[in-house]
Amino acid sequence: MVRFRSSRPFIGLWSAGLIAIVGALAAHVTNAAPANDHFANATVLTGPTNYVVSANAGATEEGGEPNHGGAGSNSVWWTWQAPFTGSVGFSTAGSTFDTLLAVYTGDSLSNLEIVTDNDDDLMGGFGIVTSSLVFRALAGEIYRIAVDGYSGATGTVHLALGRAGYSVPAWSLPDINSNLVTSADFQPKVLVVDFWETICGACVDELPDLIRLQQNLSPEGFTFFGISKDAKVSDVRGFLQTNSIPYGIAMNTPQVENAFGGNVAMPQKFFIDRENKVVATHIGGSVKYSFYEKLIKPLLRGSREVQLQVRRQSGAFRFTWPATEFGYNLESTTVLGGSNWTVASSQVVVTNGQNTVTIPAGPGAQFFRLRKTPRP
What we know:
- The protein is an alpha+beta fold.
- Helices cover 17% and strands 35% of the residues.
- It folds into three domains: 39-163, Sandwich (Jelly Rolls); 170-289, 3-Layer(aba) Sandwich (Glutaredoxin); 309-372, Immunoglobulin-like (Sandwich).
């Protein structure tokens, strides 16, 4: 007897297979790669401010793509040409997943140079997993912005950019040696004003890191300035006799504290950019060198093309270049093609926002160049 198998199991298998295929297609459609998945297809942002909503579900990692500040593999890209010179802030606040954010210069994946990056918002506090960063943008420079998900996280991306910071009211106060210090004395440097006290344990514990930052970054146009909230100036002087601090210290006054918002905690730091705007604040002293360096170095960015101008006047050469550009030496030689360049001994004077050096004209040929001093 010939037995025929029921067709029902076959139909059941066919139906299950069809459902699986339809489900796979639906998943493919749902997770189709975003239009700005690849670096070459980055979405163009224009103007001084932007706020965009996108998604990184279905995004992929390209060969040669850098690690955007963490373990990610679902990056999407934007490109933005800065219409101004000054501090700019980027944020992914409002995004629905744990984001990674990075900004680069360069025109291909193979020649990207990191400007700065961030995993969790440095200033957002505990539990904040979206990202934010601030850096000094240069007018006309093109930046490549990547948003990725930590450990493959995906979701809705909220990306905002705009000018960072708020202006600080002018302030002045005498330092511990009775020399008047004003806010104008620090421009156009990047300045961190540190409210502290000699009996504040967190303040004292972090001093070695602050001193190292001052020593390493001051050639780039950076400085700390400490404002002590001690009750007696004699306590501060006694502390400084046994603790060498290579930056200025002054005693707090109500007027100066009010200029920074009043009721300032300790330690509390105000990060002020070259345009005299507070672009970040930090309360507490439990962090270390790398934390502060991550905030400060992007604010120190300088132009890649510094223009040196020269004028002949009264038997001398007058050289000028922007005072916002630090770490440069004016060098001279009498023979081109050799290695006998020497640093000009004349003093650099800042006049009307320009570094100025005046050198007497010699009897023979003289050649000059502006050279960035290599950092150790």
